[in-house]
Amino acid sequence: MRAAALILLLGALAGRALSEQPHPTRPITIEGTLRDSSGSPVPEASIRLGGSDNAAGREAETDESGKFSVSVPSAGTYVVRVEKAGFRPLVESVTLPFRHGEACDLVLRRSGGGDAAGPIDFDEHPNFTVAGLSDWNAAGGHGSDSSLRTSESLARKARELTSEGSPSTSGASRSREDLMRRRKELHTMLGESDHAELHRELGDIEERLNEPLAAEQEYERAWRLDPSEANYFAWGTELLLHRAIQPAAEVFAKGIHAHPGSERMLVGLGAALYASGLYSQAAERVCAASDLAPRDRTPYLLLGKMLETSPGPLACTKQKLARFSAETTEDAAANYYYALALSRAAGNASSPPRLEPIQALLERSIRIDPNFAAAYLELGILHAARGDTEKAAAAYERATRANPDLAEAHFRLAQIYKKAGETSKARQEFDAYERAQKREADAVESGRRQIQQFVVVFKDPGQGQGKTSVSEKP
What we know:
Elements: E1 28-36, E2 46-50, E3 58-61, E4 67-72, E5 76-83, E6 90-96, E7 104-108, E8 128-134, H1 145-159, H2 176-192, H3 196-208, H4 212-225, H5 229-241, H6 245-258, H7 263-275, H8 279-292, H9 297-308, H10 317-327, H11 332-346, H12 352-368, H13 373-385, H14 389-402, H15 407-419, H16 423-449, E9 453-459, E10 466-469
Parallel strand pairs: 1-7
Antiparallel strand pairs: 1-4, 2-3, 2-5, 5-6, 8-9, 9-10
Helix pairs in contact: 1-5, 1-7, 1-9, 2-3, 3-4, 4-5, 5-6, 5-7, 6-7, 7-8, 8-9, 9-10, 9-11, 10-11, 11-12, 12-13, 13-14, 14-15, 15-16
């Protein structure tokens, strides 16, 4: 998929409050200026703050010079929505209060321009139609194979979320016979009364019965009858799971406008953006989700997954994963992912002051979970950066014992043996690396064969025609 076709929520909040640091329970007034990408003011635009846990939404409109002022009753996390005809809607999460003496300046992108794509507003008429199923070899996405595997993992993780942020078990324990019996009952019930919740349940069952095309149709019917948060999410995740990445992003973007306080809608959009190769923007959406539900582990785990395949730091991840680690000190994953965020931020730096906090977090993670192979691998990389090959080799060996299929640990250990002149050991580790890579590739291929991809027809607004897209490639 080309960058101009991606669904991207653009804009930057520099967030600034003009009043003194307010009391948490006192009103906060935010003032700022809205401009377009050329720097010109945007008048008569709607600016709304809502979706916080402690306040109702507030709305304002920009004046002729693009300036606005909006008040909220108290501190907290809000979702800012900016809309104006001819521009792409903007959605951002913001935590108030900001620092004293600053202003909130926003940038709105014009529709149909040369900028990276923004969300598509479709109301009752989506910009796409799911027309069929394709072979798995046409799987879309962006980036390396490891990034593609991560995007598939994010899609599955997002799908597990319920409105309460816990794993969904709808139909998970039913036998195929029970599912088919319930499907027949639902068809009978729908013949008597057309209800959105029945269509959504039928969609769940069709997906469990490996009928994704029927499932997508039921989820869309549910959304048309009732565009609730649950129906947006069910439809979006079904599209995402079957590699209809741009349509999924379109649904999630629209869902955020309709339900700005939805943590899982932001998670879904983040997963779709990641699958599109927009890694920083994806992280920003998931960071915003973590602000809406700070005690839910899921957004943090998704941020950590993104970091694992990212060569460098991702926007906002260090701050959010620091919170995750601080609030769950005895969680192995929390310590490991925060260490990963610090490591990515440090880059190639090998100075003790920057590496010591990372080492402490990794060692704590291993103490909590002595079989945490990925933590041993990162600890080995840290020791290698310091030039301590003996400790690095020991950490890599522990990683391979904890997980013999961890290919990178075998490869790094082989390199150490090769430099040390231990040819036999190096050859053994290189062989183990190749076997682990093959097993991983076979497992990924097997998993992908089980997921069929949707064939999507995109509509042409100018001519009323559509074009078929099987693979979502850049």
